[in-house]
Amino acid sequence: MARRSSFDQASDGFRAHLPDLTSPRFTTAAKQNIYEYVQSMQDNRAPPWLYDLTKVWEKLLEEPYKGITNDGTVKEGLYQARDEGVDVDGPFKKAEELLAALSSEQKGKISYPINAREWRAWSNPEFLLRPFGLRLEEGKSQIYQSYDLRLTATVPESIAQSILTVVEASLSPEGYEKAIAAMRVNHFLGEVVKLPNILNKYSYNFLLFGTPSTSASSPWGWLLYGHHLDISCFYKGSQVIMSPSFTGAEPNIIDDGEWKGTKILHKEGSLGWKLMQSLSHEQQQKAQIFKKMRDEGMKQVYGNSNNDETKRDELITDTWGPDDQRHRCGAFRDNRIVPYEGVLVSSLDSSQQELVLAICEEFLLYHPTKARQHKLGQIRQHLSETYFCWIGGFGEDDAFYFRFQSPVILVEFDHHSGVFLTNKEPAKYHTHTIVRTPNAGDYGQAIREGNEKLE
Questions:
Q1: Which of 121, 128, 147, 103 is nearest to 39 (CA)?
Q2: Is 144's pLDDT higher than 70?
Q3: Cα 420 from Cα 127, distance rounded (Å)
């Protein structure tokens, strides 16, 4: 019998775990806007594990930016400002057109200094914790006070489309297709659970930093963030840095409606599994740092505490948590220490090393082609310092986690348990992926100068 496609497997899997939409969680949320929804979570500490994580995030955001490292020490000299030949004219012009279409009030809300802390304020849950910039959704403006007294405004669809033209001009064509797929999957999830007010294709906020320019002496950039999609884009002349980024999906396919046939994050998982399968038994044992997706050997003080809020600071160093689960470098983890683990990529044969680079290329798909090739070249130069680790089984039906990490790249792939769906165990139809540039590479910090540096 022929093996069923990953699309069909995902469709059957998630359809078997649809939630009860008559439960209070869904009937209450269906009556709320996005601001009432997050206020209810905060007022009621519901769910408690997410509320506690958001309090930890507040503490992490207050830390000065340092960067992700493997040992607590930032390695210097890894990145240089240079002419990489990336097309900045297109994004610059689209950003100028966007600004010209905005009212003075909207310009004030979308615009931030180049060194603003808000670069680091993105998060991937559906809860709008920090409503900065302009929200793409249509509708009447909602008033919601954030910690620095700025207000988010919703915008007409014409402005939302103008924002997306900036994103499209900045990303590679295939990268933009991937981003749009993530937004459409989010919209599809909203239809499945009947919460279009919370989950839709425009459930994202957009910020501009600095003044759009083609000159390296006047860097600028943008941030798009929301449920399961977060992209940071920093320009310094013709050089672009697109990390951190977070792309996720629950489910990771659309099997009905206008965008039926859409799937996302399947290739990354398939290639990672292919690499793990290609290793020798000895290499597999070295790569597999935990056999279970929630292994007794993981640090999970908060996860084992029955949501004890006095233990929530343990989430800063726990290696399993109820929300992030296995991934280490998601929202607000800008300064995390992640020790190298697993098998050294330079110990693999040449075909396996090429497969590692092919996997990294999928993770870097948002980058324009020239920037991506430069980044891959940099990754290749550090293969002798690149580690590959794996969590979970590696049979055909097993959910899993993997990570590649070197001084210049850190990517994570994780299958999650259900958040809106009801599967209690990780499954292949709920996926999180993360791209980071260690050693102060995120947000272009390493190539910023003087007062351009992040706060």
A1: 128
A2: no
A3: 13
User: What SS3 class is residue 324?
Assistant: coil
Residue type, 453: K
379 close to 408: Cβ distance less than 8 angstroms: yes
- Closest listed residue to residue 356, CA positions, set 376, 341, 330: 376
The whole-angstrom separation of Cα 174 and Cα 134 is 25
Query: Of the candidates 290, 352, 333, which has an alpha carbon nearest to the alpha carbon of residue 432?
Result: 333
3-state class (DSSP) for residue 21 = coil
Give the mean model confidence (pLDDT) for residues 184-208: 97
Element (H, E) at 249: strand 245-249
Report, as an integer, the average pLDDT of 167-179: 98
Give the per-residue pLDDT at 141: 40
Q: What is the pLDDT of residue 455?
A: 79
Q: For residues 190 and 207, what is the distance between their CA atoms, to the nearest angstrom?
A: 24
**Cα 348 to Cα 141: distance, rounded to the nearest angstrom:** 55
Q: What is the pLDDT of residues 330-341, one digit of tens each?
A: 999 999 999 999
> Looking at the DSSP assignment, which residues form a beta bridge with residue 413?
402, 433
Instruction: State the Cα–Cα distance between residues 36 and 285, nearest whole angstrom.
Output: 48
SS3 297: coil
Residue among 277, 238, 196 nearest 32 (CA)? 196
Closest listed residue to residue 128, CA positions, set 209, 41, 245: 41
Average confidence (pLDDT) over 117-137: 96
d(CA 95, CA 170): 10
CA gyration radius for the chain? Answer: 21
pLDDT at 5: 83
Mean pLDDT (the chain, rounded):
94
Q: Where are the domains of the chain?
A: 9-24+76-245
Q: Calculate helix-pair angle for 266-278, 6-15, nearest 10 degrees.
A: 110
What is the rounded CA–CA span in Å between residue 415 and residue 421? 13
Q: Tell me how far apart the alpha carbons of residues 160 and 168 are, in angstroms, rounded to a whole number.
A: 12
**Separation of alpha carbons 243 and 437, rounded Å:** 6
Does 48 sit behind a cis peptide bond, omega within 30 degrees of 0 on the bond before it? no
Strands 387-392 and 288-290: parallel
CA 189 remoteness from chain centre: 18
**Residue 90: exposed, middle, or buried by beta-carbon count in 10 A (0-12, 13-18, 19+)?**
middle
Task: Decide: 195 and 419 in contact? Cβ < 8 Å.
Answer: no
